[in-house]
């Protein structure tokens, strides 16, 4: 059975952040969890499917491999444990449940108020960045290295990311006592909500850093050498892990996505790794045959045109197309012959054509397109 794209399974875009992935997965997991759908095989299958998708996409290395090779990157087994992040399809323990549903129901589904406690995590992953890079047609075909400049947030060098002035430290939030959450009792459940004063961090910055003004990060200009491999196409994305904006409170940096825009060639059209072009020739060249000099991406090649060639016939120059991406070999160059009919003739040329016409008889009677195509094939 063909596997559904993991991004479609979670109903997220391909550039979704870690938090967007977690939110989407949590929603689906709650909907299809076996405990909520006892005896429903379809729901159980949906739960396994979304769990498998989340385990791959929430892991930076697995996600990078999946973005590049799809399901083939895992040889038919994406998670390796047969049941996504929860093992066999059900929640393996209370820790898993708290990680996925903690921000909905607080610290845990606490019966009578007992739970694991602790403040909300301050760690925040940095945002992903996008850079649009325009290439010449030949640069995309043969590869190129380009140095680009991006502006991004980096950890403040003075406070090292804690937001406090030099020699100072954030202080414990008095509203939540440093837990980052305020607990409320609702029937059997003990529900914890994010502290409105500290925003869930459990601390407050009383003396902010003069450099970042308590924001923990500063904007800087950064140079990156982009290595474009041979054979890339329009809208190809190159991912540079950790080159996005810095995370907050020790969180990991986001990623940088370089999106390629390839300029059109003046006469080549690309179809996969093959190139196509049209070569006009005169009627005498078509009738008598000729040798044509064809410009390829790597130089000039000679193409031998046989006598009696028909307009529309294609000739293939093997290995003169675009290199295969990350593989050996190249595509082909396909040249279509177009016989041009002259629109302006002088008197001498007209006389010669009339003389030629008297020696060549063609029955000007209607025929079907199928027969006409067969006649063309006889000359090709």
Structure description:
The structure is a single chain. The chain is an alpha+beta fold. The protein contains 9 helices and 15 strands. A 4-stranded mixed beta sheet has the order 10-11-15-14. The protein has a 3-stranded mixed beta sheet with strand order 1-9-8. Strand 10 (269-271) and strand 11 (274-281) form a beta hairpin. The radius of gyration is 33 Å and the shape is elongated.
Give the topology string: H per helix, E per strand.
HHHHHEHEEEEEEEEEEHEEEEHH
Number of strands: 15
Distance between the termini: 43 Å
Strand order of the largest sheet: 10-11-15-14
Query: What fraction strand?
Result: 15-25%
Low-confidence sequence ranges: 76-99, 101-120
Q: If helices are DSSP runs of H or I spanning 4 or more residues, what is the number of helices?
A: 9
Topology summary:
Layout: H1 6-10, H2 18-32, H3 41-57, H4 60-69, H5 94-105, E1 129-135, H6 137-142, E2 144-155, E3 171-172, E4 181-186, E5 189-194, E6 203-204, E7 217-228, E8 237-240, E9 256-262, E10 269-271, E11 274-281, H7 283-288, E12 290-296, E13 299-305, E14 314-317, E15 333-339, H8 347-359, H9 369-379
Helix pairs in contact: 2-3
